[in-house]
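Is zinc ion placement plausible here? Inputs below.
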Amino acid sequence: MMLLRAPMESLLGLCCKPSSSSPAAALSVFFLARRLRRFSSIPHRLRFIPPARRNRFFRRDFIASLLSTSRLQAEAPVRGGDTRLPPLRIYNTMTRAKEEFKPKVEGKVGMYVCGVTAYDYSHIGHARVYVTFDVLLRYLKNLEYEVCYVRNFTDVDDKIISRANELGEDAISLSRRYCEEFHVDMTHLQCLSPSYEPCVSDHMPQIIDMIKEILDKGCAYQIDGDVYFSVDSFSDYGRLSGRKLEDNRAGERVAVDSRKKNPADFALWKSAKKGEPFWESPWGPGRPGWHIECSAMSAAYLGHSFDIHGGGMDLVFPHHENEIAQSCAACKESHVSYWVHNGFVTVDSEKMSKSLGNFFTIRQVIDLYHPLALRLFLMGTHYRSPINYSDLLLESASDRLYYIYQTLQDCENIINQNTSEIHGDDVPPDTLISISNFEKVFLESMSDDLLTPVVLAAISDPLKSINDLVNTRKGKKQQKRMESLFALERSISNILNVLGLLPSSYDEALRQLREKALKRANLSEEHVLQMIKERTEARVSKDYGRSDAIRKELAEAGITLMDSPDGTTWRPSIPLVMEVPPAG
Ligand SMILES: [Zn+2]
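Reply from A.M.:
I modeled the complex. Tokens:
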């Protein structure tokens, strides 16, 4: 990434010399800069404030007026003349309340998110977790925080060992393979890479040291080479999940063991069994229990005290509850300021599970749907609410994404064709107000515990403004039309970028969306074009019955025909058959 960044910036430095003085040249630089930036996947922050950094990409005198008017003045009403951003508030599972976010160190955020146990392809429940925390990461970066984001891989676990034994493969190498597959999924979903991705197998010394600390403090005990944490030693046990100790049963991953002092006691170290990978320790050969890895690795990369610890809601108990107990036993000063958890995914309103046959991997979904349609679908529900996966909802997200990208592609095309008409210092007041309102909704909603559904709905207004300017007779005649289009497109694409929904190119994303729609319909583009040709011939010969039948047949398969003076084209749409409500 750094290799790409250097030539891009030096190239832009050359392009941005004062001699490139026309608006057209500035616009070319703008689009070149954006494409290069997208290509190199360098996360660029939303350019609300401060303008200094972003100005290097543009000719300053041309863009400065847009920045000063559309951004800074637009934010003024939000705080009644105060230009500060609305304070970020996050729901904290520990206090069961939305709290104002205050980092432990000014300007910096430490965030640890529990990663996957890598023994298979990741499913859409995982997609939800990592998209949720990617949105939080991107928004924190947008607020100019320097974020240290740590997401682990569990590469030592019962499930990995049993899968490896089934396949006759080494457990660590099987796990590494699925870590790579996970990276592929994350790249498709446009989730930014964490700062660190520690694996359990690389952190045995830290894990063993922490277990020693816990034993030294008298909060754990040994039995036959196993080490158990004693939940009775931690008076706050159950505070995160709201469970009382006497209500506890052995957790999902805690084997029932009559040797334990309390059934809720959990393993910190498990003695080696035949055929299992093991590491030497003061308690004999073995491997760590599941929970201790996150306590040890978060402390290794973020210290004992940090800002955000996240994961799916299913991790609140026992995993995070146990993490707190271990961390506090090892170090009294251990503290996480905000515990953040996302809601479950259900499929057709039923719990997603392999046994019900309604279990979807990310790979299966993005084989048929654009990965950013999956991301848009996930962000269409607030991260703490349950989300129901269905083909219809994925079709709907795909349809919406196509509309967003098509509108922005049309806008970009017109701007590219008319760069000489643009005078960037003269954006009409009604456009500035529209942008100001949109950005205000964005900032207020995202700062209110990441209300992404509100932001996604709010994109409709500036998109409509673009479509009016591009397509309607009144819009085409509007004064300063190009300046409006330029400012609207820039505002929307900036926000799409913070949401992780900006594609490397609209054109390419539209092509991919069409390709996926054809695959779902089990049709080739040649076939669709042949049908369009037949329909045109039918219309010429006034065979409207045949013409309508072709249109309907394609619409049922999710292909909508669009007639214009230049001919008939097609776009993906929600298949007509799926839109019919069930009888009764
Ligand atoms: Zn964890």
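Short version: The CA atoms of residues 123 and 364 lie 9 Å apart.
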